[in-house]
């Protein structure tokens, strides 16, 4: 006759496993290697780094805008060199989460279409553009 474990047996075993378990699951604990990471400190460090990055990207964006203004005086508005500068500008704007990136992306797409025609689809940068 096969016996089934009783509820009290299950409780006793579960309690024993809980006390003797090597896995103490807590926030910040790596389940693979059991190392601990202070999540608040990590988050603060990431935020501090992002502030520093934003400080560098802002002047870069202004530089690209100024470059585009100069290039538009030297070349026609649809010159390929302006398209490449617009790609740089849109990359920076996307990194900063700016809505103006859409305009900066659409314009080089139009410019490159003049130069590359249907081969524009071969540029990975433009695959996500509708």
Give a quick account of the main beta sheet: strands, pairing sense, barrel closure: none
Which term fits the overall shape? elongated
Mean pLDDT: 79
Helix content: 55-70%
Total number of distinct structural domains = 1
**H/E series:** HHHH
What is the strand tally?
Answer: 0
Distance between the termini: 70 Å
Unreliable runs, pLDDT <50, ≥5 residues?
Answer: none
| CA radius of gyration | 28 Å
Q: What is the count of DSSP helices, taking H or I runs of 4+ residues?
A: 4
- Beta-strand portion reads under 5%
Structural class: mainly alpha
InterPro entries: TPR-like_helical_dom_sf
How would you explain this protein's 3D organization?
This protein is mainly α. The protein has one domain (25-126). Helices cover 64% and strands 0% of the residues. The chain has helices spanning 7-20, 39-74, 80-96, 101-116. α2 (39-74) runs antiparallel to α3 (80-96). The longest helix is centred in the middle third of the chain and has 36 residues, at 39-74. The radius of gyration is 28 Å and the shape is elongated.
């Amino acid at each position: 006759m096969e016996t089934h474990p009783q509820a009290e047996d299950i409780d006793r075993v579960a309690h024993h496993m809980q006390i003797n378990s090597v896995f103490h699951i807590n926030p910040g604990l790596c389940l693979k290697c059991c190392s601990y990471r202070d999540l608040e400190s990590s988050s603060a460090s990431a935020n501090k780094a992002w502030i520093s990055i934003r400080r560098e990207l802002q002047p870069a964006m202004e530089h690209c805008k100024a470059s585009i203004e100069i290039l538009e005086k030297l070349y026609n508005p649809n010159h390929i060199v302006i398209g490449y500068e617009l790609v740089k500008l849109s990359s920076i704007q996307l990194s900063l989460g700016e809505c103006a990136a859409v305009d900066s992306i659409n314009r080089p797409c139009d410019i490159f279409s003049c130069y590359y025609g249907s081969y524009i689809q071969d540029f990975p940068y433009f695959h996500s553009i509708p």
